[in-house]
Amino acid sequence: MPTFPQGSIELRVAYAVNPRLPRMTPAQLQILLQATRDTAREHFGLELRFSPTDEIPIEALFQKIPRKNERDVRKQIYDFKSGRGDPGRLARDFGQGFRQMGEPLAGMIEYVKPHVEIKEANYEALGAALAELQLQRIESWRTIRALDGGPIIDDSPYNEYMMWLALGYGEVPYELVLTNQILASVEHVYPSVHSAIRGGYSNGITTYSKSSRFGTFSIWSTFAFTAEDKWARQMRGGENYTFEEAAQLAGIGATHEIGHQLFHFMHPYGNDACVMNPVSLFAYRAWAEELSAEDCPIGSNPEMKPGAGKFHY
Questions:
Q1: How far apart are CA 92 and CA 87, in angstroms?
Q2: Per residue in 36-73, is it b (16+ CB within 10 Å) or e — as a string?
Q3: Would you say 221 and 282 are in contact if contact means Cβ atoms under 8 Å apart?
Q4: Cβ atoms of 192 and 198 closer than 8 Å
Q5: Bridge partners for 15 per DSSP
Q6: Residues 76 and 37 sit within 8 Å (Cβ to Cβ)
Q7: What is the rounded CA–CA span in Å between residue 89 and residue 69?
Q8: Measured torsion, CA atoms of residues 115, 120, 124, 126, in degrees rounded to the nearest 10
Q9: What is the pLDDT of residues 101-127, one digit of tens each?
């Protein structure tokens, strides 16, 4: 059983930058980190301190992935870029994955009701419906153009969820990696209801890290807060953010990943008071307005108990 932190702790921070995509300014990153401090104090009773942020090119960061681990994770990636993936296998893998993860079925079905019909109340039906929805919606991300005019999801592996997991096996001496990279992909393992309804988009990832002080590290993308294309605005439910608000909301959202990293919380789906309840699509203003630490204290439900989640090493 891991030991969970109390009091004041320091997290080492990096900002991994893809020059093809919009990025936050240093001033915005400071607003983001302050919002994370404030939210962690309110919801978790922690005093977070952050090291000076190291900026690193995303290409250099991915060079830290050990080749063996890269080969292993590539086997789990669904090939949506070439169209050679097997959707039938993906549907089966989603159903099996949801069952193995053990998060409450009723809560997940209720969470996705506004987006997809689940014909039967079982993990297999949930998996089949969400696999199909994720494959449909990721195509909308592929239509967006980068700053250089090319597609934001290109032939590079930077969008791939599994590749970010593989970083944990490399020499990555950080507890929090911020990035402007879009994290949108499809994989045969670790299905997620909130990622599926976003078209495979993960705002954040928390996973094993051999170089972290806590055995885990968190990745948090700023892309959804800076993107201004039609699809991103639609996913935000029409929300538009100022310079300061984008950074503020990104910082509040990053606290969700800190909860996974430091306490191994799971997702109390549908409990709007909980910072660990994933935002529906990208409507972060509406999500943040419902948060209440008083109404969702640590231990208030099974998903909010320290150690509820298990990490795959």
A1: 9
A2: bbebbebbbebebebeebeebebeebbeebeeebbeeb
A3: no
A4: no
A5: 55, 178
A6: no
A7: 23
A8: 10
A9: 888 899 999 999 999 999 999 999 999
